[in-house]
Fold this protein.
Amino acid sequence: MNPAPPAGAPAPTWIVLKFGGTSVSRRQRWDTIGRLMKRRADEEGARVLVVVSAVSGVTNELQAVCDGHADAAGTAARLEALATRHETFCRDELGLDPAAVLGERLAALRALAGDPRRAAGELAWQAEVLAQGELLSSTLGVAYLRSQGLDVGWTDSREWIHAQPLPNQNDWSKRLSASCGFEGDAALRARFAADGPALRIAQGFIARAPDGGTAILGRGGSDTSAAYFGALLGARRVEIWTDVPGMFSANPRQVPDARLLARLDYAEAQEIATTGAKVLHPRCIHPCREARVPLWIRDTERPDMAGTVIDGAAATIPGVKAISSRRGIVLVSMETIGMWQQVGFLSDVFERFKAHGLSVDLIGSSEANVTVSLDPSDNLVNTNVLDALCADLAQVCRVKVIAPCAAITLVGRGMRSLLHKLSEVWAEFGRERVHLISQSSNDLNLTFVVDEALAEGMLPRLHALLAQSGAMPVTEAAVFGPSWRHIDHPAPARPAPWWLARRGDVLAVAARGTPRYLYHLPTVRERARELAAIPAIDRRFYAIKANPHPAVLRALEAEGFGFECVSRGELEHLFATMPALAPDRVLFTPSFAPRAEVEAALARGVHVTVDSLYPLTQWPGLFRGRDLVLRVDPGFGSGHHEKVRTGGKEAKFGLAAQDVPAFAAAARQAGARITGLHAHIGSGIHDADHWRAVYAQLAALADGIGTVGFIDVGGGLGVAYDPEAEPFDLAAYGAALAEMKQAWPQYALWVEPGRYLVAEAGALLLSVTQVVDKQGQRRIGADGGMNALMRPALYSAWHEIANLSRADAPPGPPADVVGPICETGDVLGRQRRLPEATAEGDVILVGHAGAYGAVMANRYNLRELPQEDVLDD
Ligand code: ADP
Ligand code: ASP
Ligand code: MG
């Protein structure tokens, strides 16, 4: 980390703000720019330099002009179209006179068509062409803000930012992907200050070339212009204003669940930018880091959101911060028979990359093969260049080009120590063909190169796996902000949880002693009625394993639910609670149960489900003359955690679809009839399409069997544990089922939800035992932990935690809420902001604990089981 500035140093006077293409393409956004400039001047006493991009899409058009340089008429027409576009924008959007504002600029733009360097497409001419977008937008901006009464000056960036050719740089990158100096001294700063008013607008993307002409900083390079200015001027900070409110844990346009990264250090931000996050140009961090200028990323449409802060003082938090991807990667695989330990082979090979001006990014090697990647953002990788390279390389090895590929990178500190948490991520890659894996020695990056077509689809899945596995520490509130989904579509304000409205009653219950579960039956009934209102569902069964409390069972029986049991114990408990219950309202769906349990269930007359050939072939006598339900494994699983996915080859449940004909034959032979088909592939599922797929598969199988009367699609309905998360989309679920029902009206549709009915209705009440600060980490101890509620320890599940004794106090510093069990994993929630004054004896409430709470509690450490209570009004 850089040392702090010496005490008493004068405060830097400039703040640099950079606005990207979309931020300068609307009048109202220019109003925001003017407001932000003024506010920084008025409230912070700063001078303000705004660096702008070209209007959205203009640089792409200019790039097309460069690419089509050989066609004189086409070039002139393209430039004319651009001139018209700017005139229209000036007049219609900004309400200014185009001739007065843009006259000279547009003349220069049109003149480029007649430039003698055009025909050959000289690089210097291309740079002039590309520079026009920023020259135009900055001119428009100055004129507009002046028309609004702001004293704004126009600065030509080329006067201040000068390209510096690097050793081995080829002509293309010297001119069109230039690097510049950024060492500023007092004399430069004085000159700059004297050069115009306190509010200034300059162009991004352009610099002075050593020959006095224009150089370009590479696509997206306006961020880097702002950073160069920030460093040259020793600015207070550089603010990058764009169309998203910060750097996210993945590209939010591809991964809606990507989380805002509130705070990053320079090295992490650098790695995220380099590996593909377009929101920051990779070259813009280095100048800020060297000059110790903080970088902010903000959203022009949401100017009041805090965004991302990147500086040298961010706390180091290990874990994956982001997953990024780069497309258009070219792999060059080089193979030689004699390579093993052959002296100088790598040098021979790399010499050739250097000769073609190509910079190599990733490298993988084995005895007989070296594979490297070329990144198109650093290289001019076109077919001509590649062909020439391959011809050259062919002299020393066998060459194969693999393209197009995408590089998917996990970025974060301490990647090596995280490998054990990445097993599911590896498995995900294991299903695809991975061409290259590379782990950087700075321990910040792990990259997988796959075929380009695969990458986009993999990102949301990988992001979800990283968050679930704990490899991405999304509960660290100091780093991870809200998700893009939440920012873009804020969830409608949810009704306050029942326990807040009933706080007095809940505290009175807690006074009887903690740990104690409390169930709010009106909430159970509410969920039950929602399901009852779905017309496609013919029969509903409650999976009692989620919560077998007698009051819950009775409430659901009264709502018309049947019950699903998975053990003899559950069956006995159910009939003991409700002796008059008709056996037809009960399903028995055991897993690897002993014969006696199946026998007992058959004797009760409940619906018995079988999910392998074993019971039929080994205990044939049992099923003679009986109806049975067949549980099928549709071949895939789903759910909130690996441990609750109950479909697919890895899961122990269900008969493989391919074995259904053999099962049907065995059933016939045993004298049994298959009256229903069942599948349940997991729990905590939010995607309604999944039931559609399951139903379609079961229906197709049922058609083949002939005796089937009902299809049971199981449960699995998701629950939004996090108040920020999207609630389960019951309408989409209902619509998916309706569609299925319409396609196969001959089958009755059964469902068997558990969690959905009871999760929200339950709370675990605990008392604070101790509050301890250890080496900067605060811990709030509670009298129940993984013994009372296993879900956080078992599934890394997130539950809301509130201090009910101080419900109105503001959030305090982050603290881990831990239980009393002698296990490091005994943490109910990490980095929670309970009130600062939280103290021994306060009542802590763990929300959404009604499902798989009390029923999974245990007596580990010989602690007592939690008590259970009910609120029935
Ligand atoms: P500007 O034109 O303002 O420079 P860019 O399009 O260059 O804006 O950068 C912003 C875009 O970067 C976002 O709209 C988003 O699509 C993309 N992006 C890619 N990865 C990330 C990420 N990890 N975080 C935020 N944005 C990202
Ligand atoms: N206008 C340039 C581009 O589109 C630079 C930038 O916007 O950052 O690449
Ligand atoms: Mg950009």
About this structure: The two ends are 59 Å apart (CA to CA).
